[in-house]
Amino acid sequence: MRQALTDGSSSTRYLTPERGASVTARPLRHGDVRTVIGIFDRLSDRSRRYRFNGPKPCLSRSELIQLATVNADRQALVAYAEDGRDPVGIAQFVRDGDSAEIAFAVVDEYQRRGIGSALVAQLMADARADGVREMTALVSAGNTAALTLLRRMASALSVSYEGSELAVRAAIA
């Protein structure tokens, strides 16, 4: 049986990004809207547009609840800065059978340090251990950093246009 990563204390991981200091990663606790807002509020308009594939000045109540939902099919890891207080990134997946859609964001001042790569690698390892064999993502065509990260993390099965975004499908087994 699948289990959500909901225990923030016993599931702490120490990630070493490619560049910069180590970060602590913990599963998002179910309903933790404060952490989701803490990350969203520190994203620039450009980062929000890349993460949500369009302008996103604010999150609706239903979007916030959805992003803070954690269960057997919806999991998320949150990266925290060196002092452990401020969330600096999040990677989430929503499972559908043996496939999962992945999304991630890192606050602007912490981008380009490898935090997104470290979070996505850990989340994909968790998904793989949980029986997920394929990852999908919808990526803004201009978000070359996200596309590069996804290509490094998995064997790309296909990358195609879906409207103005790129639909990525990759094996993670």
* Quaternary structure state of the chains depicted: single chain
Count of DSSP strands: 8
| Relevant CATH superfamily | Gcn5-related N-acetyltransferase (GNAT)
Total domain modules? 1
The value of Rg in angstroms is: 15 Å
Please give the CATH architecture.
3-Layer(aba) Sandwich
Q: Major beta sheet, specifics?
A: 8 strands, mixed
Structural description of this entry:
A hairpin with a 2-residue loop joins β4 (about 85-95) and β5. The chain has one domain: Gcn5-related N-acetyltransferase (GNAT) (Aminopeptidase). The protein is about 30% helix and about 30% strand. By secondary structure, the chain is of the alpha+beta class. The protein contains five helices and eight strands; from the N terminus they run ββαααβββαβαββ. It is globular. The model is unreliable at about 1-10 (pLDDT under 50). An eight-stranded mixed β-sheet has the order 1-2-3-4-5-6-8-7, with helices on both faces.
Key descriptive features of the protein:
173 residues, alpha+beta, Aminopeptidase, eight-stranded mixed β-sheet, 5 helices, 8 strands, 28% helix, disordered N terminus
Task: Please sum up the structure shown.
The protein is of the alpha+beta class. Helices cover 28% and strands 32% of the residues. It has a single domain, classed as Aminopeptidase (3-Layer(aba) Sandwich).
